[in-house]
Amino acid sequence: MNALLATLQWYADLGVDEAIAEEPWDRFAAPQRAGPEPQRAGPEPQRAGPEPQRAAPHPALPQPALPHPAPPPPRAAAPAGDPGLAAELAAIATLEALRARLDRFEDCALKATATNTVFGEGPDAARLMIVGEAPGEEEDRQGRPFVGPSGKLLDRMLAAIGLERGEVYITNTLYWRPPGNRTPTPAEVQACAPFLRRQIAIIRPQVLLMVGGAAAKSMLERDEGIMRLRGRWAEYDPGGGDPIPALATFHPAYLLRSPAQKREAWRDLLAVQMRLLASGG
User: Residue ranges per domain, the chain?
Assistant: First the structure.
């Protein structure tokens, strides 16, 4: 049992998010009848003449076998939220005012269980903005994003492309730590989304880097895992201007557990560096 759980955890860490059957499944094959056709209630009506000869049916052509069942329909997008709050936040022009409004926000239950609000840190006009998933235990204690072992690795990753932590704005999709570092619920992410969107609109970075599958999936409104999302440029539109180039990569905490993936993360960082250079940074 322990070996099975370890294997499932390994698949989850790799971003495996769908199961594929080993045998092809013909979805277009006619279903079998559950039983004999029911008898008619009365006598069959008399026909006016002999029944015309029917052409022999053509044999059914074989259907091409599908490699695996068709994927489920895409998940419905989360509701837009309170339009009154969105309009209120759109009028906020500074990070200080946005933080003050977040301090008065009471519609996310995580706030009651967290020690500190982890709003984010960095310059208001940062060229690069990094968004993770949620604060952890150490982040909750210090009120700062990406501290501890994963934060130190993130600092080294930034230094590898010529950036210091103080040049980059860093935040999360959630501003409060989920108890026990559990996975955030869609409702919790949605509650914080208007603030994050306005935070990005105020900073207006040249490049947006989403670290970890949870952050990438929620911000891009996609269902794929990080293995499929990483390394592919997308656009994030916070409103109030042109969309921002956005790239997903692995979370530093995952890289600490899976150092073999650092090569792919390095490629993502080089792509960010080239995009910043192309933008004049």
Answer: 83-278
